[in-house]
Amino acid sequence: MALAPASSGKEPVISPPEVEMNGGADQPAATTVRASVVQASSVFYDTPATLDKAEKFIAEAAGNGSQLVLFPEAFIGGYPHGSTFGLAIGNRTAKGKEDFQKYHAAAIDVPGPEVSRLASLAGKYKVFLVMGVVERAGYTLYNTALFFDPLGKFLGKHRKLVPTALERTFWGFGDGSTLPVFDTPLGKIGALLCWENKMPLARTAMYAKGIQIYCAPTADASPTWVASMTHIALEGGCFVVSANQFCRRKDYPPPPEYTFGGLDEEPSPETVVCPGGSVIVSPSGTVLAGPNFEGEGLVTADLDLGEIVRAKFDFDVVGHYSRREVLSLVVKTDPKSAVSFTASADGERPASAGKKRDDSVYK
């Protein structure tokens, strides 16, 4: 895709203190940032090969001078287009359970060896990296975005708050403990995944943290997605960079190993399963690069951070255009755990219900 030239503003943006600090990058603050969106398919069920493919795109983006590189939703681990995992109300098939077992095996632990490799790639190519992954936490999977700085440091993660539709059967729900916005020399960077970008309160939380480069990894290739990204850029007075996969049927295992549900017939190997639509939008609502519906590749633009200040002069959604005495938002950022263990006041382990436990078996 063509590189969109930066506009002429030079104003640096001042960072508020409440957002997470990256703690590693010691470069001076940028006034213009070159960002690249990677539009490509995963190598489904093959995480090592997908990591190799990611490195090729990171190297290409870095070679073009990009300082920020964004990958699609679930790039590592794969977005299971067309799969039903054998689910119907009241029934799960044996093959569907086997499909999930393979999908679980392709996911990654955070932290883990794949996270270490991604961190080393960010350091090797000197880029801020935002990567969509399928995170494995025990036997539950999460749709997660990971953040890395150009010193090779893993900064943190965001778990998708609400998986969409059938996604809820194979991905868990994130909570408010993973809604970071990282203060970096490139500006304040954060991400929401796919349709949680349609959640006004989630967006408002990101705006309140001062987000300047708003990353939106997605699996939505509909024409209305670009309209949503444009609205968010205008609403938040921020740059929006959105990455989607471009993939064909042949990018998934052939049938019967992998089948597409809900279709009248099995698609041909060359059938486009997801046409991409990756895009970069400015705070004024100008589409700087994309949308790309043509194939795999990079979508790249220069982001003039001074444009954020000019946009906020018109409309600052959590500043002069807010009515805090009428409308307010509370964001609960504590982690939500299914099980909590507490000790009694004297420090002894609590006894099981109705019966005193023999602690000797635990010694």
From TrEMBL:
InterPro entries for this protein: C-N_Hydrolase, C-N_Hydrolase_sf, Nitrilase/CN_hydratase_CS, Nitrilases_CHs
CDD domains assigned to the protein according to its UniProt record, in alphabetical order: nitrilases_CHs
Keywords: Hydrolase
A Pfam family per the record: CN_hydrolase
CN hydrolase domain boundaries: 33-305
SUPFAM superfamilies listed in its UniProt record: Carbon-nitrogen hydrolase
Gene3D superfamilies per the UniProt record, alphabetical: Carbon-nitrogen hydrolase
Domain of life: Eukaryota
Single GO biological process annotation from the record: detoxification of nitrogen compound
Protein name, as recorded: CN hydrolase domain-containing protein
Organism of this sequence: Sorghum bicolor (Sorghum)
